[in-house]
Specification:
Elements lengths: L16 H6 L46 E8 L5 E6 L5 E5 L4 E5 L6 E6 L13 E6 L3 H4 L1 E7 L4 E7 L14 E7 L10 E3 L5 E4 L19 E4 L16 E3 L5 E6 L5 E5 L5 E7 L24 E4 L5 E7 L2 E6 L4 E8 L2 E2 L4 E3 L7 E8 L2 E6 L15 E6 L1
Antiparallel strand pairs: 1-25, 2-3, 3-4, 4-5, 6-7, 7-8, 8-9, 10-11, 11-12, 12-13, 14-15, 15-16, 16-17, 18-19, 19-20, 20-21, 20-22, 23-24, 24-25
Length: 397
């Protein structure tokens, strides 16, 4: 577990990347099931197994313009600052508490919450956005029992993996963290934090520019990027530039990552004062921040597929289900459905639950008709309701 050295920002190769990233033109408009482990990773079929973008011709039928979303159960309540949620093969959930650095286990059938352990070194400043953020389960969890975490320390953001052993005493079920990547710039705000394994078995991470805008266009920095790495934290040979973890650049604060059945990577991104974004991610693509925000039709920057005014979104987690991307909105206090037609939106975004559950943080796809949704009202910026924060189970069209 400790034989691999953690990579740092200095390992991101810069030579030639400007040409790779600048070559993209403007205008481009495996979780386990909650209660059915036998269907594990079924959604990963028919997806590419390499780092190149799938063909635009590989598209499914367009999703209906109108859909439905109904809360069918409350899975858990009284969670403290839930951020990352990872689903284990048996359907149970691991949930990260941003401020405390603790990970809890949630029994999806009974709602029972039990402590798993803490990630050492997590740092959170009141009023800020740092702390224990994204969680991901190893694609080989059945054999390696590894859980990955993205978290902030006093000096940087890191990604570490830990052995999860549920046979040990409550609160002592996490092994010592094996840091696979360090020196991701950190700040009071814009730390990104979402991590997810793609259908290619690689680990992807969304990072923020920490409020230092120039880092998003600095190809030697890991901030303001989407990163792609092996499970050991190494740059895959088919990344846009060999030796670099940078997969795409020009991001302000990426907090949502999801793949559709055709293998397209989608990402949600916080804008500044005008436009929040849903982006279709291309290897080596430059998404414009801080030069442009939203749809600008300005080469070489890639336009978002959909944009929202910031008071309607401030997007965090996303998931794919039922032919659509489902996007949680924090400031917007709603769940957005974006119906897809291949690499485009099949119709205008559709909002659900506006103001009903407060701030919404993370979306997890259980199957093509079921998603989980977490509230985020105890994060210091919301108005907690009785029982907050909670995990909701939804049936979607």
């Amino acid at each position: 577990m400790r034989g691999r050295g953690a990579r740092s920002a200095g390992a991101a190769a810069a030579a030639g990347l400007v040409l790779v990233l600048g070559g993209c033109s403007s205008g481009g408009h495996g979780v386990s099931p909650l209660l059915s482990p036998s269907a594990s990773r079924a959604s990963a079929t028919a997806r590419p197994t390499h780092g190149t973008a799938p063909s635009a011709s590989a598209s499914a039928s367009a999703a209906p313009v109108k859909g439905t979303a109904k809360v069918t159960a409350t899975v858990a309540t009284k969670l403290a600052q839930p951020w990352g949620v990872a689903q284990l093969p048996d359907g149970t959930l691991l949930v990260a508490s941003r401020d405390s650095g603790k990970i809890s286990r949630v029994d999806a059938r009974t709602g029972e919450v039990t402590p798993v352990g803490s990630v050492p070194g997590v740092s959170h400043t009141p009023g800020g956005e740092a702390g224990l953020l994204g969680l991901a389960v190893s694609p080989d969890f059945g054999s390696d029992h590894l859980v990955y975490a993205y978290f902030t320390t006093e000096s940087d953001n890191r990604i570490a993996r830990m052995l999860y052993d549920p046979t040990r005493a409550e609160g002592e079920q996490l092994g010592a963290p094996d840091t696979i990547l360090r020196d991701i710039p950190m700040g009071l705000i814009h730390n990104g934090g979402r991590i997810a394994f793609g259908p290619d078995g690689m680990l992807y991470a969304g990072t923020g520019e920490t409020g230092r805008r120039g880092l998003a266009q600095d190809v030697t920095s890991l901030a303001g990027k989407i990163l792609r790495m092996t499970p050991d934290g190494q740059p895959p040979a088919d990344n846009p530039l060999p030796g670099s973890l940078v997969y795409s650049t020009g991001h302000r604060n990426v907090q949502g990552l999801a793949w559709d059945p055709q293998g397209h990577l989608w990402a949600s991104e916080f804008g500044q004062d005008t436009w929040d974004e849903l982006n279709l991610i291309k290897p080596g693509g430059n998404y414009g921040w801080p030069v442009v925000e939203g749809i600008a039709h300005r080469a070489p920057y890639i336009d978002p597929v959909v944009q929202w005014h910031t008071d309607e979104a401030s997007p965090s987690g996303i998931a794919y289900a039922g032919g659509s991307i489902w996007m949680a909105a924090l400031k917007g206090e709603r769940l957005w459905r974006i119906p897809l037609d291949g690499t485009k939106a099949a119709g205008p975004p559709q909002a659900f639950f506006t103001g009903k559950y407060g701030r919404l943080r993370t979306v997890v796809a259980v199957d093509d008709h079921t998603i989980l949704l977490t509230t985020s009202n105890t994060d210091g910026r919301g108005r907690p309701h009785p029982g907050d924060d909670r995990i909701l189970k939804l049936t979607v069209s």
